[in-house]
Each structure stands twice: as C-alpha cells, then as structure tokens.
Amino acid sequence: MSQSHPHLLSPLDVGHLTLRNRLVMGSMHTGLEDRARHLPELTAYFTERARGGVAMMVTGGYSPDIEGWLLPAGSTMASRRMADKHRGLTDAVHAEGAHILLQVLHAGRYGYQPFVRSSSSSKSPISPFTARGLSARGVERTIGHWVRAARLAKRAGYDGIEIMGSEGYLINQFLAARTNERTDEWGGTASKRMRFPEEIVRRVRAEVGRDFLVQYRISLLDLVDGGQTWDETAELAQRLEAAGVDVFNTGIGWHEARIPTIVTSVPRGAFASLSARLKDTVGVPVIASNRINTPALAEEILAGGGADLVSMARPLLADPAFAAKVAEGRSDEINICIACNQACLDHTFANKRASCLVNPRAGRETELTLTVAPARRRVAVVGAGPAGLACAEAAASRGLAVEVFEAEPELGGQFRYAMRVPGKEEFASTLAYFRRRLEVLGVPVHLGRRAAAPDLEGFDHVVLATGVRPRVLDLPGADHPMVMTYPELLTGARTPGRRVAVIGAGGIGVDVSEFLLAGGPGLAVDGRDAHGHSTDVEAWNRHWGVADPAVERAGLGTAVLDEPAHEVHLLQRKTSRIGRGLGKTTGWVHRAELKKGGVQQYTGVTYRAIDDDGLHITTGDGASRVVEVDSVVVCAGQESVRDLVADLEARGARLHVIGGADVAAELDAKRAIRQGVELAARL
C-alpha cells in the first residue's frame, strides 16, 4: 500500500456506505446507456473500473421520464423491467468491492428531442427544440417520476442515486432567474426557485429510506447571466442537506457558458477552492471535481481539507486502474487524462459512443481485448510517435518481444510539438506514461537511430509508424529567410519577428497562432511560462473573467487581457470559417482565444509569393494585397513518411503501416493511437 497518498487511500463512511478510498468516478454518458442490448458492454466498462480500485462510480444520466430524455428514446429509468435488467451490472460492480450510483438526469431544455419541458418556455442555444414550460401539475408529476426512478434504482441494486442539479439541466433551469420566469410557488423568488430540488430530495428520501445514498450534484459556479449567487448556492445546499442529501458532488458551469471549464487549457484544480467553501457550509461530505487528473493533486486537495472525496470522470476513462496503481505505489504508470475531449465529450455530443484518445479500449472493453499472445513473436516498431508508442506498449503488455527504433533523439513525434502550445502542456503526460511503461515492460528503445531495412531483418512483424513531415510550399519565395516550419517555431530552433503570417488554419495553424500570441511555450516545470509570467489559476480567471460568485452573480466578471506577444495573421485557402473542423467542445475555446488576441483571419486566400515585403495573396473577393510581416510559419499540411515501405516489401517483411505514415490528413492522434492498440491486439 502506497504511503505517499494516505488521504486518497483512506476509507470513509458516507451515509450507510463505507467507501474503500476517496476516489469517485464521476458521471459520463458513454452512449451505452441508451439501449438495453448494450448493458453487457456497460457492465464490462464499469466492472473493469471497479476492479481497478475506485471506491464508488456514478452512471451516465438516466432520465426519469420521456420529457427528460437527452435524445429520442434515450436512457431512462422508468420501469421495473428496466430496473431488473440492471441487476447484472450492479452485482458485477459489488463483486469487485466497489459501489455504484444511478444518476437521474432530466435534460429540460437541453434535450435534443421534441418533447422537451423546462421551468418556463424557452429555447437553449444547444438544442433546436423549444421547451414548453411545465404546468403546476406537470411539476408535481416530474417530481413523482424522480421518486419512481430512485425506487427503481434501489430495486436494480444500485447503492444510491445522484440527482443531477448542475451543468444547466432541468434543476438548474428551475434555480436560475435566467430560465425560470414562473410566478407560482415554483418561481418568482430565489427561495421559491429552490423548492423544486428541495422537494425532489425530500420525497426521494421518504421513499427510499436511510439505507440508500442520496447524492446531489450541485452547481457551484453557473457562469451564465442570471445564474445563482454564492449566497443562494449556500442556502440551497443547507436546505438540501436538511431534506436528506448524504453527500454533495460538485459541478461547474452550464453547457451554454462561454467560459471553458473542462478543456485542457483550464488549469488543474481550477475550481477546488469552491468545493472547500461548500465544505465549510454543510455538514455532509463534499466531492471536489473538474480538472483533477493526478493522484498528487487529489491528495493535496484532501490533505488540505478542501473536500472529503475527489471525483474523476475522464481520468478513469484514460486509466481504469488509476486507484489500484496509486495503492501499489505505481502512480508513475498512470495513463493521465489530457482533457482533450476528442474521443469522450466530442463523441457524446455527436451521438457516438464515448471512448478515450489515450485509451481506445474505453467503452470497447468487450471487443478490444489485450490477451496474452500465443507465441513470443519479435516485433519492430519504427517510429516513437503516438501511434508507435501505443502499439509498442500494448504489444509488449501482451508478452510480445518488442523493440522501438526512433530517428530523433527523443520520443514523442507530433506530441513533442503539441505539448509546447500554451494550454496543451498535458500532452507531455502521455509521453511520460509511454516512456515509463516501456521501461517497466523492458522494451528496448533505440533513440537517435534511423532504422534501415537491414536493421529489421529477423523480426516477425515490422510496424511502420514513422509519422509525417511538414509539406513544403510550392510558392515563389518559399525559401525566403523569413519562412519557417511549425516544428522550427515550436521547438525554438527559429525565432519569429513581431509580425507573423501563419499559412494554414487547421488545428496546427490555430495552435501555432496561440503559441505566438503567448510569446512562447506553455508551462515550464516550475509553473511559469517562457517569460517568467505566472500561469496559475488566478491568472487564468483574469483572462476569462471568472469572478468570485460571492461578489459577482454566477461568477461572471470582466476579462483582463494581456497584450499579445505577436501580431498574427492566420490564413487559409478554404472559404469556410476558420476553426470549423475543430472539436465541438474545444473549438469554440480556440476561436475565442484567436479573437481575444486580435488575430487577423483570412479565408478563400490564394498565395502568390513571399519576398522582403511580406506575403503576397489574392483575397476571396479577387483583390491583391501584401500582408506585411516579418515571418511566415508554414502549417500547410503534412506528408506521410514512408521511405522504408518499398525496401521492406521487397524483402518480404510482414509490414504494418499505422498513424501518420498511413494517413497524413489533418493530424489525428485519436486515430493513430487507436490504430496502434488495435494492431497490437491482432499481432
């Protein structure tokens, strides 16, 4: 048992339960909840995490009725037949020593279906459907459906329920003047708006008794106009505790808020101080959440008395054995969540099955299995970028004899560049994980060695994961001294002038623009950027205008922006909006950063030449102009590095090409890592 995380590993009595440690897996909708036929897969998903040592888990949201569906025919807990089908899931979790709660979530006006109801008639910016306001009888009926869902959850073997009162769903819609325009007993004043969640908790408690956990997810910071003040939040918590809440989980921000709360650029533990404030307000346990992804941070929060438990949702997607590794003293082998959202939340909002970029087995536990290899075949992996590292680690974990060859003096591929972009420092955690795992598995890694075909003789399989190289501009003046590639910029090999043109506005072009605005790479080890400026939570709050909710309603303040380090011009050939292809949950954040930094954006551009005057272009309306700049950074795509393919094929090698070497379209680490693991499972 690890002695370095005594608070995280200590047991805790919560309601009628004794939790084996302080780690809770927070709710995340995976897409497996919506159809009964997926229950075996959902069971495997939760069982693997229960086996991994987590104390308690919360399911994705289950609606108490049709009106509360997130999606048409979405996950619902409204019948004994459905409850009985869940018995296999809860029994499997309990057999592994963990507890599990069913989250009951009414989407309100966030529902993506035509039956949506809310506190008042309104339309949210994230659904095309206009919600109708619930009648007084409808409010009573909805509360009754919540009680029914709790009763059925108990029948199904769940240890309790989590009442979803955060993130802008129906309960938030009742609590906020923004969305509650009622003048009856359910609205008109803050106190009356609180009656809805209070009655849900009171009636649920009366129905299920004391031997069933009632957890309430409370919004600590709405971050929308017309949200709650801190005094209102504190009063609500105290009233809910009196009504029967056993434990408070915490949430930050509505889905429609224009301030990021969970993306990778949000500092770790950014909202932990609010959980500590809630803990001082109530007498039941409080769970801290949002951007907590390491055991060290969890231990720090718990040791400081800022919470009684810590919730991690995406980090348990990334590594189901998180808790077990901490307990065994193997924290350095945890696959850290990098908060990219690419395979989890982006999938969820696109109605796809949620998974994880750094762990493609998440949500696919029954189909993507890493069984012990039937024979110890020799495998050469050429290239130590994300695809090659993922393949090497997964193959070695199966017992295959793996060797890695990397031409560069360090591993990482394109991740070495990504982690230098301000707000993407977390990507370094993935490289640290692979580096450590290959060391533990005894995989020889030959750095600075460009493998040739003769070096790969004798291997049963050769995996070519040699990645990409930046595409060279076919343009007069492409060799001008002011022109540089994005690797040259991001690694510091070249220094840009004050005015910079970025050619190519895909994901890399946007990242490069943010790098230039910040004036250099992101966080250094000591928590300061390349220029010695603090990049702590307070600085992030100022940048986004996040205020103390005790001072500014809902925590909305005024952003204070730093002067950008460079004048940036971002150009693309496409006529579509810049950033259109970025992830749904992160793209708007990047577009906001470009706007904050005053980046001049050009679409429908034809590039004509580069010379001492700058970048000569024809704009979308046919006009010719010169973008007067001191430097030009080329982010105009990549080409696959496949130099070894012909020679290896001629020698009869059993060759497998993955990652950027396979497809060099807009860089896709999600696809690259998935390809690597899937190949390793087949070898």
Outline the biggest β-sheet.
8 strands, parallel, barrel
Q: How many whole angstroms does the radius of gyration measure?
A: 26 Å
Q: Catalogue the unreliable spans.
A: 523-534
How many beta strands in the DSSP annotation?
Answer: 28
Question: Would you mind describing this structure in some detail?
Answer:
This protein has 683 residues and is α/β, with parallel strands linked by helices. Helices cover 30% and strands 17% of the residues. The protein has 23 helices and 28 strands. The strands form 7 sheets. An 8-stranded parallel β-barrel has the order 3-4-5-9-10-11-12-13, surrounded by 6 helices. Strands 16-15-14-17-28 form a 5-stranded parallel sheet. Strands 19-26-20-21-22 form a 5-stranded parallel sheet. A hairpin with a 2-residue loop joins β23 and β24. The longest helix is centred in the N-terminal third of the chain and has 20 residues. About 2% of the residues have low confidence.
Q: Summary?
A:
This protein has about 675 residues and is α/β, with parallel strands linked by helices. About 30% of the residues lie in helices and about 15% in strands.
Write the layout of secondary structure elements.
Blueprint lengths: L5 H4 L2 E3 L2 E3 L3 E3 L13 H13 L4 E7 L17 H6 L1 H9 L3 E6 L12 E2 L3 E2 L6 E4 L2 H20 L4 E6 L4 H6 L14 H4 L1 H14 L4 E9 L8 H14 L3 E6 L19 H8 L6 E3 L6 H9 L5 E3 L2 H5 L3 H6 L17 H5 L28 E5 L3 H12 L3 E6 L8 H4 L8 H14 L4 E3 L13 E4 L3 E3 L12 E3 H5 L8 E5 L3 H12 L18 H8 L22 E5 L15 H10 L3 E3 L3 E6 L2 E5 L5 E4 L3 E4 L3 E3 L4 H6 L4 E3 L11 H14 L1
Parallel strand pairs: 3-4, 3-13, 4-5, 5-9, 6-8, 9-10, 10-11, 11-12, 12-13, 14-15, 14-17, 15-16, 17-28, 19-26, 20-21, 20-26, 21-22
Antiparallel strand pairs: 1-2, 7-8, 18-27, 23-24, 24-25
